[in-house]
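Hi R.,

Here's the chain you asked about this morning:
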Amino acid sequence: MTVGANLAAGDHQANDLAGYRFAPLAPYTGVMSTITPLTQDPPAAADVSATTRQTLSFAALLREWRTYRRFSQLQLAVESGISQRHISFLETGKAQPSRKTVLELSQTLNVPLRERNALLQQAGFSATYADVPLEQAQLGLFREALEQMLTQHEPYPALMLDGRWRLVGANPAALSFFSRFLDPAQLLPAGGDSAAAPFSIVELCLAEDGLKPYFENWQEVAYSFLQRARAALLANPKDAGMAALIERLCSHPEAPARWQVPAWTSPPPPALTLRLHKDGERFALFTMLAHFGTPQHTVAEDLSVELLFPADEATRSVLRGD
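And here is the predicted structure, written out as tokens:
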């Protein structure tokens, strides 16, 4: 998707942007209804878990997740309260688990909710964790909380993102601010095509016709995405889309060689400061990431809200319209 054509310098009419939303947060109308629900992934980033559900038995999946987490059978037994002998029988297919056992093992191994559903289904049980689009009535409280966060963060920018940093929602302050660098309408699917993939914030930051030319600290921003992507892949090694994103970042023409090797011993800074410039103006913002605690829904587990705050008085003044 092209994100080119910058807006002309001058006033950025907040009223022209106030109606923009990027997420299927029913009952809103307009552009919100054109965005792909979160449960649909673009084909290029398809999750390998669908194949896994069809080809791997419960025994193989359990052994795979235990290996991912570097647990011995003894350690898993101690932490889950399930005997080592029973775990061994489960992994060799000599015993079948109860639903309670599947859930306890999944919890101990910190398996993502969608993959817990896969374990349950391979053990012969129905899925426990709902996997429906955000606009469904049963997620009304989540939608209300998310919309409240976006609204209350005004006049500062706030973005709602899914697990791969694809844009799901944004407040008018975010659209007004980023319209200084590009046309926000070009983030939307062309012609209202609801089958188009949600727009990736990572791609926006990497693109020469996106935000990349305006970053003063582009490498720092891109590297922060890389570190977060690697941490996310550790949490769910089955996420082929995240692996593809890591490859995309590492293969960028301006990616330094050191990016090829994960730097787990170098913790990221407490907060990332975005430094942008255009037409003699400079802007500095730092970010805060908010997640749902103890989610019981796959979409809620994936969602996060990125809150941007001014890092200096000049940026604060611009965002407040002083």
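One quick note: The radius of gyration is 22 Å.

Cheers,
M.
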